[in-house]
Amino acid sequence: MPKTCNTCVIGANKELRERCPYSKGAVIWYDHCLLKYSDVNFFGQIDNRNKFSMANVQAVENNPTLFNEKVQELLSGLSNEASDANPKFYATGKVQLDTFTTLYGIAQCTKDLSNVNCKKCLDVAISELPNYCDEKRGGRVVGGSCNVGFELYPIIGT
């Protein structure tokens, strides 16, 4: 994973320099890394300005209300795990919904956050999921300080 991370950061740095050559601040997200720079000190602060969401276009077919509850349960548990004295500030997990269906989840914070701010950031992101991903088979809320996501297929690291 360190090599993947290093390669990702090098690519992200190149991309930001090409897209934002005169910017005083920028952020770019990839599956394996996030790169952010600014002329304002952001270390330790929750970034609620740089955020976006993505949703799987497919809807849940069977019992979407129960599915949404399972998403909330899984991600809440991952939020606790990622922020609870976990030096990686990262957690993945899965829950078996039925014989053929597994729900996968991820929660991650940037390492500059405190445990308390990591938990706050993740919980806000989780609370925003229903606005974008209600009754969808997958979705993510990705911010400048944390991200959460769920899918019905394995996510990176799960």
- What is the domain total for the residues? 2
Q: What's the average pLDDT? A: 92
Strand order of the biggest β-sheet: 3-6-7-5-4
Computed structural class: alpha+beta
* DSSP helix fraction: 25-40%
User: Which percent band covers the strand fraction?
Assistant: 25-35%
Shape: globular
- Look at the structure and give the CATH class of the largest domain: Alpha Beta
The SSE order reads HEEEHEEHEE
What is the level-2 CATH architecture name of the largest domain? 2-Layer Sandwich
Distance between the termini: 14 Å
Please tally the helical runs, counting DSSP H or I stretches of 4 or more residues. 3
Please state the CA-atom Rg, rounded to the nearest Å.
Answer: 16 Å
Spans of at least 5 consecutive residues whose pLDDT stays below 50 are: none
Give the strand tally: 7
Give your account of this protein's structure.
- This protein is α+β, with helices and mostly antiparallel strands.
- The protein is globular, with a radius of gyration of 16 Å.
- It is built from three helices and seven strands, in the order H-E-E-E-H-E-E-H-E-E.
- The chain has two domains: 2-38, no CATH class; 51-151, Killer Toxin P4, Chain A (2-Layer Sandwich), CATH 3.30.430.
- A hairpin with a 5-residue loop joins strand 4 and strand 5.
- The strands form two sheets. Strands 3-6-7-5-4 form a five-stranded antiparallel sheet.
- The model has no long low-confidence stretch (mean pLDDT 92).
- The protein has helices at 2-19, 64-83, 115-133, and strands at 25-29, 34-38, 51-55, 90-96, 102-109, 139-143, 146-151.
